[in-house]
């Protein structure tokens, strides 16, 4: 980054720090010679092989080096993949946060949990405009799977940029406005220099069904299910929560909420007026008691198979208040996020073991959830209305970006204006030209408890190796200066079954270590303990691999005397 020149006068630099080539971790930098704004700052949930990792956030080093130019965070909506990194970034990168009341409410309680009480948050709504020097931002409404979602138009020295955020074209949205097609057409008539558009479902033909069909499907389920209905969805699906409350009202059921984030989001949504329900209809799970099954709905977290979520605990029989039983119906009101399929399948298998009925899109009940993102015909509509001279597909895995780019070309976007970017690419835009001029670091930053950024890929690989192959521990008493043995070698193992089953492996590994340590040190190559330790690791690893064809991690420790 040190060699990257400053932004030229009249130019705009567009730098994705997350969300391109992946689903989640959305964060886009827009920078002029004098000013910078960041659109969204989200997190990514770890895959199963990232042991011990809680979250993955963007590498904001680029912004940190230019923090004097940062004017604000512009938030399109309140989903975690767009707001979840703020609590980790704000301690080093303070700036005002602009977003809807709902988004700010969701951000606020997360910040409070992290001890951040001084964040400057500014409400934005339909038509809100904010001046950041050489950049002016305008918020326009879009339909998504959460209320108060917005796209953002940026007036810059290089021209007008439209950043769609997550959206779909829903003519009967629930608790939100329709995507403002008239405003998009107005931008198109004005002249859109760059369109950055949501690509999450660019591989899906046709259009996305309306959110209204979910309410109808849930209402029918609640009317016909013989016993309790447990509905798992995202805690930030505020509109879905209202649909469940409405369906419960129609069927005479009471809704009980469980899951920490679900309970917190419902509390906040009731306070802000996004969810309308009285205390008789929507109650905490601690009030479940001896409620009649046919009058009960339980709403919970865990639709993505998260191991510690309420639904996962129910599925394994470890939930404190809810014990699943025959006659219960469990509804997964979501689709698996790419990468979460195994976790979701594991949860579903555990649910079936409990003898419950499982209802999901995968089981043929397609309307218990609909996507919150546009399919191909909707994407083409936005491209047609805005008629951009340059186009960057955002929010999606690489195949989504490529397919969206092809759609744009079919709609007349010129080849020279199409840019399939990945995280860290630096696109520079002027009134007449656009090109990628550099590539900056945009690696994963791992959050492990209170440790942010202290875990790197090498540690993740070590954890994976330990999980896959176990380890062998070789402890030896040595002279700290010469590395010579002063006692015997002890060999133990964890997670490596062969060592427990075959005593000869333990004896053999110990003898290999003794042979190495008793050998005469080479005066130039093996004069320190660290060098001798590496040789023990190499020789024992070779021995174990030859005997078992397995590769456990070999750890050598010295008891120095």
Give descriptors for this structure.
single chain; 561 residues; alpha/beta; 8-stranded mixed beta sheet; 6-stranded mixed beta sheet; 26 strands; globular
Rounded Rg: 28 Å
State the shape: globular
User: Which percent bin holds the helix content?
Assistant: 25-40%
Strand content: 15-25%
Structural class: alpha/beta
Number of helices: 16
Would you tell me the overall average pLDDT?
A: 88
Distance between the termini: 47 Å
- Multimerization status: single chain
Task: Please give the number of β-strands.
Answer: 26
- With strands numbered from the N-terminus, the spatial order across the biggest sheet is 7-6-5-3-2-1-20-21
Poorly predicted ranges (pLDDT <50, ≥5 residues)? none
Largest sheet: 8 strands, mixed
Topology at a glance:
Blueprint: E1 12-18, E2 27-31, E3 36-39, E4 55-57, H1 61-64, E5 70-74, H2 80-83, H3 86-89, E6 97-99, H4 101-113, E7 121-123, E8 129-131, E9 136-142, E10 149-156, E11 159-163, H5 181-190, E12 192-198, H6 212-224, E13 229-232, H7 238-251, E14 254-258, H8 260-272, E15 282-284, E16 296-300, H9 310-315, E17 329-332, H10 341-353, E18 357-359, H11 376-386, E19 390-394, H12 398-410, E20 425-429, E21 434-439, E22 445-448, E23 451-452, H13 457-469, E24 471-478, E25 485-494, H14 497-501, H15 503-518, H16 529-548, E26 553-560
Parallel strand pairs: 3-5, 5-6, 6-7, 11-12, 12-19, 13-16, 13-17, 14-15, 14-16, 17-18, 24-26
Antiparallel strand pairs: 1-2, 1-20, 2-3, 4-22, 8-9, 9-10, 10-11, 20-21, 22-23, 24-25
């Amino acid at each position: 980054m040190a060699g990257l020149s400053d932004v030229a006068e009249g130019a705009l630099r567009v730098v994705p720090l997350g969300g391109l080539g992946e689903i989640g971790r959305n964060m886009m930098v827009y920078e002029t010679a004098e000013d910078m704004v960041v659109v969204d700052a989200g997190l990514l949930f770890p895959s199963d092989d990232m042991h011990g990792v809680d979250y993955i956030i963007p590498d904001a080093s680029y912004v940190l080096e230019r923090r004097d130019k940062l004017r604000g965070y512009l938030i399109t909506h309140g989903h975690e993949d767009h707001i979840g990194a703020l609590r980790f970034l704000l301690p080093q990168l303070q700036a005002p946060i602009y977003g809807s009341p709902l988004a700010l409410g969701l951000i606020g309680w997360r910040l409070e949990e992290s001890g951040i009480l001084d964040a400057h948050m500014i409400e934005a709504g339909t038509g809100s405009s904010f001046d950041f020097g050489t950049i002016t931002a305008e918020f326009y409404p879009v339909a998504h799977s959460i209320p108060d979602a917005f796209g953002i138009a940026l007036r810059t020295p290089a021209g007008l940029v439209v950043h769609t955020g997550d959206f779909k074209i829903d003519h009967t949205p629930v608790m939100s406005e329709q995507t403002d097609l008239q405003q998009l057409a107005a931008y198109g008539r004005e002249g859109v220099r760059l369109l950055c558009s949501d690509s999450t479902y660019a591989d899906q033909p046709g259009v996305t069904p309306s959110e209204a069909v979910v309410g109808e499907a849930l209402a029918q389920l609640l009317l016909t299910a013989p016993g309790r209905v447990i509905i798992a969805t995202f805690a930030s699906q505020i509109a879905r929560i209202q649909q469940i409350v409405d369906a419960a009202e129609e069927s005479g059921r009471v809704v009980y909420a469980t899951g920490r984030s679900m309970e917190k989001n419902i509390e906040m949504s009731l306070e802000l007026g996004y969810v309308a329900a009285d205390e008789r209809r929507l109650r905490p799970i601690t009030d479940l008691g001896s409620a009649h099954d046919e009058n009960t709905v339980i709403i919970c977290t865990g639709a993505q198979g998260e191991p510690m979520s309420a639904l996962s605990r129910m599925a394994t029989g470890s939930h404190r208040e809810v014990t699943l039983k025959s006659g219960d119906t469990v509804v997964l009101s979501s689709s698996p996020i790419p990468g979460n399929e195994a976790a979701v399948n594991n949860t579903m298998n555990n649910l079936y073991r409990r003898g419950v009925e499982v209802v999901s899109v995968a089981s043929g009940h397609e309307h218990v959830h609909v996507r919150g993102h546009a399919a191909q015909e909707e994407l083409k509509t936005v491209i047609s209305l805005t008629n951009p001279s340059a186009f960057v597909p955002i929010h999606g895995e690489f195949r989504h970006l490529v397919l969206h780019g092809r759609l744009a070309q079919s709609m007349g976007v010129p080849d020279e204006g199409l840019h399939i970017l990945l995280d860290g690419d630096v696109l520079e835009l002027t009134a007449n030209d656009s090109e990628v001029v550099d590539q900056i670091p945009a690696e994963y930053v791992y959050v492990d408890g209170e440790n942010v950024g202290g875990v790197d890929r090498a540690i993740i690989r070590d954890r994976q190796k330990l999980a896959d192959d176990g380890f062998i521990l070789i402890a030896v008493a040595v002279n700290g200066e010469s590395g010579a043995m002063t006692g015997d070698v002890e060999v133990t193992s964890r997670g490596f079954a062969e060592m427990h089953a075959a005593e000869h492996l333990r004896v053999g590994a110990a003898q290999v270590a003794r042979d190495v340590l008793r050998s005469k040190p080479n005066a130039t190559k093996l004069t320190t303990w660290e060098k001798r330790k590496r040789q023990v690791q190499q020789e024992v690893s070779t021995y174990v691999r030859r005997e078992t064809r397995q590769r456990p991690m070999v750890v050598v420790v010295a008891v120095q005397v």
